[in-house]
Amino acid sequence: MKIRPFSLRTKLIFTFLVVIFFGGILTLIFGSRLVRNTIISQAQAKVRHDLAAAWMVFNEKLKDIKDIVSFTAARESIRDAIENNQTDTILRYLNRVREEYNLDILTLTDQEGKVTCRTRNCEVVGDDQSQDELVKRALRIGVYAAPQIVLREEFLKEGEDLVERAYMEFVETPKAAPRPENREVNGMMLKAASSILNEDGQLLGVLYGGVLINRNYEIVDRVKEIVYKEEKYKGQETGTATIFQHDLRISTNVPNEKGERAIGTRVSKEVNHAVLVEGKPWIDRAFVVNDWFITAYEPIRNINDRIIGILYVGMLERPYIDITNRVIFRFVIIAAICVAVLLIILFFSTTRITIPLQKMVLATQKIAKGDLSHKVDVKSRDEIGILADSFNRMTKDLEEAERKLIEWGKTLEKKVEERTQEIRQMQDHLIQSEKLASLGKLAAGIAHEINNPLGGILIYSQLLLEDTDKNSPYYENLEKIVKETTRCKNTVKGLLQFARPKEPEMTLTNINDVLDKALSLLESQAIFQNITIKREYSSSIPRIIADNTQLQQVFINIIINAADAMEGKGILTLKTSLGEDDQKIEISITDTGHGIKKEDMNRLFEPFFTTKEVGSGTGLGLAICYSIIQKHEGTIGVQSQVGKGATFTIKLPLRKEKRDG
Q1: How many CA atoms lie within 13 A of 602 on its CB side?
Q2: How many other C-beta atoms lie within 10 A of the C-beta of residue 438?
């Protein structure tokens, strides 16, 4: 049964409907983006204001501690007790102040910064606090307060409970930046120190005290109470606040999956880089523990303006997303009503368009039976004439497209040829590897057969040499036999090492340390005395899983070759870096020697190939290096210009470390 074609009116209405549909889609996309950006920007403005309020709470707490310490240090009773050496009176008074104002530490030092009274642990005194940044400044007269990272050793002097509060094991957090350690033993304190002066203005000592932030939720809960007023959305707290020690949450009301405070979790990688590395504020959406928040982060700095942590406030993103979705849904309903009205209007207006177009159909049917060069005669300048002109342009465009298609076919053939050439090069590399493997088997057989006879010759010739008088005419000949036999034995040893390489013993390896160890074994040799060694190590490259002994052998071989090429005078540059794809470590060794000839480049890693004089090398060093790097799933290559030197580049893959447990 033949299907009846749609009428022209139906097609026009359908066409307009498609236009309206896609126009509506674009409007919906841009409109929703505009609505979303407007709502989110308002939320970001609010969270920026919330962060300012959080800083007020934070600084207010720091100021309270500063006032407590400075007022206590200014008390006449404290000054008199110090001058009269009344230790018990000082201890009782300071201990009462510490307990009354909920300070975690309150400690007194003498004018040299040595502790004379420690309220939490009165038995531990005499330690030197003069290098503490706040105490150091207070010893020069004044009152100072700032956040500070306090070491575990200092907490041990104050009490085990502070050590336990500061200690935190890292909790695995999605999107967090990797760190080599898995725990934190130091703590962050809000700390103040004040000079104690006698009536003559002379320094009697320094009083310092502070509050440990780790697992202390006073500040973050105060921020939440003031800024967010316990607001909830679908049973979940909408506002949160956190204090980070570096990237670790040490005080927070952000909940984890169990609904508990997410202590021990860490900040996301993007925020870590922006705030802790670049020192910039972050005001944007961020993934916080297990949900998306609209957040504001700013670095916390110590008295030396070093970044030691982050202050954070954030609002749950979901309420704003739901508001956006509701606005967009209403927008869609309105758009659908408008489309329905437009369809009614289109139904009546298409009648005036279809009549002249029917005449155009007759002309297009004739053109469809001809070739692309056929043109429609354009006799009018109305809508039909414009349509005919468009048809003529279409046929011209088809001719142009056909021409471009032919050109593209030629281009494709060229690309296929280039790809074929690459495949041939890969095949040549595979054939080379098979040749080396076959040569290795042959070398192993030969080395095994001649190793024992060579050993016998060497032993007996050495015995004859020892028994022969140095004035004997045979002594020099025997000495040459021993020397040449030793060289043969070293060659056989190299053959065995090449043919039967030892399987690498993979351990966690620092490439910079391996390079330094290789240099330390060679720098004392005479050939290196006039060579300038430049180390351009990257401190950011991670450790890799590798056999450091075998890699050291590779580096020693290449460095010795470089020294020989420079004839003991020049510049040797060792460089390490992370590859462009962050998946490989690159090690380059560059010399300023005579370089390598172009015809020798492809044979460098072949066994027994050497450019050195006869007797100066076996030609196995670089072949063994090539074998070791292949065992590590890496690559080794060389670039050189005759007369300017050579650069050997080694690329080793990164392997992820396995976590314990």
Answers
A1: 6
A2: 10
In angstroms, rounded to a whole number, what is the distance separating the alpha carbons of residues 145 and 65?
A: 8
| Tokens standing for residue 201 | 């203005």
Percent residues over pLDDT 70 in the chain: 80
pLDDT-based confidence at 385, cuts 50/70/90? low
Encode pLDDT of 235-274 as tens digits: 777 889 999 999 999 999 988 888 889 999 999 999 999 9
CA 37 to chain centre: 30
CA distances from 410 to 33, 422, 622 (A): 44, 19, 43
All domains of the chain in start order, with CATH: 49-320 (3.30.450.220), 372-500 (1.10.287.130), 502-653 (3.30.565.10)
Q: With contact defined as beta carbons under 8 Å apart, do 119 and 107 qualify? A: yes
Question: Residue 367 pLDDT > 60, yes or no?
Answer: no
CA distance 432 to 54: 67
**Per-residue CA distances from 641 to 30, 188, 333, 601, 638 (Å):** 57, 56, 72, 11, 10
Name the strand (E) or helix (H) holding 649. strand 645-653
Angle at 499 between CA 494 and CA 502, to 5 degrees: 85
Contact between 541 and 578 under an 8 Å Cβ cutoff? The reply is yes
pLDDT digits (tens, 9 = 90+) for 52-74: 999 999 999 999 999 999 999 99
Q: Residues 6 or more apart from 214 whose CB is under 8 A from it? A: 165, 166, 168, 187, 188, 245, 250, 251
- In DSSP notation, 84-115 reads TT-HHHHHHHHHHHHHHTT-SEEEEEETTSBE
Least confident of 298-302, 367-371, 380-384, 388-392: 367-371
What are the angstrom distances between the C-alpha of 587 and each of 48, 143, 577, 578, 583? 45, 52, 7, 9, 14
Give 201's contacts (C-beta < 8 A, 6+ positions apart): none
**Residue spans of beta strands (DSSP E) within 382-425:** none
Q: What are phi and psi of 548, to 5 degrees?
A: -65, -25
Given a contact cutoff of 8 angstroms between Cβ atoms, the answer to whether 301 and 307 are in contact is yes
pLDDT surpasses 60 at 657: no
* 467: enclosing H helix or E strand: helix 383-467
**Consecutive H or E run containing 65:** helix 8-73
- The token pair that represents 539 in the structure block: 């401190």
